[in-house]
Amino acid sequence: MKNKIELTVILYACNEGFNTEKTIKSIRESAKNSVAILLINDSSDDYFDYEIISKKHNVKYIKNVTKLGVAKSRDIGVDNSKTEYVLFGNSDLRFYNDNWWIEIVKNLKKEENTLFSFKYKSLDDNGKFILDKIDFIVKLQLVGDKFNQILEPIRSKIDVFPNQIIHDIPCVIGISYAVSKKTWRNLKGLSGLKSYDFNDNVYISLKAWLSGGSCKIIKNIVFGHVDRKKAAKRIDLLDAIYNKLFIAETIFPDAIRIEIEKRLKKSFPFQYFSAKQLLNSEKIEINRLKEYYASIFKINFYEFQKMNDNMGKEYSKKRNTALLEIDNYFESLFSNII
What we know:
Layout: E1 7-13, H1 18-31, E2 36-41, H2 50-56, E3 60-63, H3 69-79, E4 85-90, E5 93-95, H4 100-110, E6 114-123, E7 136-141, E8 152-156, E9 166-168, E10 176-180, H5 181-186, H6 200-210, E11 214-226, H7 237-251, H8 254-267, H9 269-281, H10 283-296, H11 301-337
Parallel strand pairs: 1-2, 1-4, 2-3, 6-11
Antiparallel strand pairs: 4-10, 5-11, 7-8, 9-11
Helix pairs in contact: 7-8, 7-9, 7-10, 8-9
């Protein structure tokens, strides 16, 4: 009797070409047919035949007629998957662990309201590991002086909890994360974000925490991620600003929302006003979402902020300890020379 498939890997492709097939092959080589794969081609125009490779590797294929972006494509993927659990991924991942899908499903069954992230090793174009390129998200920066410090994860190569295989993190890594479809739908997925995928991981992570769930990292699952010099997708600044405004408007307290708006306006005034106009034109839908989130959120925002700050403090302690050890090492070297 065939084992029941419980996990669908939803891959997003936009002009990734041969990288997409390499990703699919690495899934099939490691998991065989123990997982379903759904490939969403976001209206690629690179003349690569994504449909042919999908048929070749037993992959369900969907092509967006117009470019919709990662956020909308992931929602489409959830609606078209048949399993209870999904793993989102970009088309530049490589899969190694023999039982990674079993571990993911096991943990999702234990903690259905949790989003799970993993460890990622950066790869060069030839698939070789780039040394010292494993990043951990140690804090979610809510408000900063610069555009890239507003609603952005703070990354570090320091593992704050090296003795724990699974532990809380403030935010999942956007490259790839796993979730139950029940939780995704309860949180309304990435509904409302614009075509570019800016801040999608921040948005879904915040909603998971505020609804009484959590975000965690499973560190014994390691995926490879091709660190390409030229990204296939372009950043649409207007969409990126809109998404930050949208997140602030739908789930943040007024005091923090106003501060975020001030910083965004200062960074890019022209694009800010255009994004604000677009936001105002969708007030009815935004108000509907605000009412819905207010009804499902169980955690006060400031409770999350306190927890987030505590995670940042743990990182600071580890960082200071590491710097002190380096200082002591060089001081001992200098003493020996003298």
